[in-house]
């Protein structure tokens, strides 16, 4: 799948180092989880939540901001509104699901429709 806004390298759909620690912590606390949804907001805050194999939440949504004690004022006000999302993807745990299962869950969790190509 391709997005016209994608840059040369495909790093946008992978967890950054700072995010990996959070993801690992969320996975650890969520035995049902098959992955963690990562939502990046334009302000620099992040929202994450574990998802189970049915695409249902397997943890509460965790909002945080790198290097800060709390999320920004804007996020506190609009709770990380959808139109401010810059990237969203699911960091899959091993063993990974089939592509079809992934797409189904992504659509359910992230609300977009990445068309298989
Ligand atoms: Zn924010």
Instruction: Please write the string of helix (H) and strand (E) elements.
Output: HEEEHEH
- Rg on CA atoms, Å: 14 Å
User: What is the percentage of strand-forming residues?
Assistant: 15-25%
With strands numbered from the N-terminus, the spatial order across the biggest sheet is 3-2-1-4
Largest sheet: 4 strands, antiparallel
pLDDT < 50 runs, ≥5 residues: none
Give the N-to-C terminal Cα separation.
6 Å
Number of helices: 3
**Helix content percent band:** 25-40%
Mean pLDDT across residues: 87
- Sheet/helix structural class: alpha+beta
Enumerate the distinct ligands: zinc ion
Record field, number of beta strands: 4
- Label the overall shape: globular
């Amino acid at each position: 799948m391709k997005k016209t806004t994608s840059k040369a390298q495909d790093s946008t759909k992978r967890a950054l180092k700072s995010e990996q620690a959070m993801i690992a912590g969320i996975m650890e606390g969520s035995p049902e989880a098959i992955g963690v949804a990562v939502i990046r907001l334009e302000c620099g805050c992040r929202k994450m939540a574990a998802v189970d194999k049915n695409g249902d939440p397997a943890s509460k949504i965790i909002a945080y901001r790198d290097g800060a004690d709390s999320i920004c004022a804007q996020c506190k006000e609009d709770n990380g509104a959808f139109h401010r999302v810059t990237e969203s993807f699911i960091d899959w745990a091993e063993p990974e699901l089939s592509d079809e299962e992934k797409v189904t869950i992504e659509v359910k969790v992230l609300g977009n429709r990445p068309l298989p190509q």
